[in-house]
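Deliverable D4.2, example record:
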Amino acid sequence: MKLTVLNVAYPLAPVGPHEVGGAEQVLSRLDRALTRAGHNSIVIATSDSTVYGRHVAIPRPPAPYDHDAIARARQSCRDALHATLSAHDVDVVHMHGIDFAEYLPVPNVPVLATLHLPIQWYAPRAVCPARPATWLNCVSQTQHAVCPRSPSLIHPIGNGVTIDDRPDDRPSAKKGRYALVLGRICPEKGVHIAMNAAARARVPLVIAGKVFPYPAHLKYFEHAVAPRLGSMHCYIEPVSGKRKHRILASARCLIVASLVPETSSLVAMEALAAGTPVVALANGALPEIIDHDKTGLLVSDEDEMAAAIGEVDRLSPQACRTAARERFDVRHMIDRYFAVYERIARLYGHRPGQAA
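Output generated by the structure prediction step:
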């Protein structure tokens, strides 16, 4: 069955294989897989995105991302959705933004919305949609368990990352002394907690991430992170590709100090795939990803985090890689999404051989 799938990104975040943001990376991997499999992939995303299929570009408003900027971005997304659905016979619209309920299309096209973020961050009408032909999926069992029960809710589809196919008995990367924080830099990610814990453990901390131009994020970096940078706390720009893998593989550990219930953690999966254990506050779905005392250490506060940073050397890089290969291969995620796409398409009248 040849499908036409329209993926809709959060309208303020660029999409691409090297971008920061779990939802954007998942969308990019689906776009690439659809294109490689011969399906028609259409992506509505900011003009600075990297898209493998057909790119419907929307402008990204200038910083800062205040109320007016967000409203303009949503309107651009609504306009692009209307124009795209008028021009193409789309089988499924797959929405990824936290605000997807603000620009849902007309009810004559089926919609799948992936809930990438904590359930309490969504509007009630998003997690209990009244719109017909609308399905929701969570990205972990933990998130699914706290989502309101609804006929729209399907089984969770876990996230996945690209796994190196080489055998597990290859030599481990030479480990450095530093701990690593990787991803968005904002208050809820608890970068300041990681800085405190690393300092107490007397371990250098590398912070590799992106500060999006939301006023609260800029203020957090300016006041809670930047003044403390120096010999023990180093900030570098966002990393991707081979450089990202090298930095992950060489770190003594990845620190995930999120202060909110994480729905998943692509960066934790990437660290394990690179043979690096994870020290994390046991929030949300992180206990689903990290096997305590085997592939990482789960902690409850800053004191335990500082102690754990000093203990991770006893954990096996090979055990981390094996767990990632067995549980987090992106191909499992792609297969499950493709199966949902086909099921929805058949339910709404797509037949084998139909022009797409």
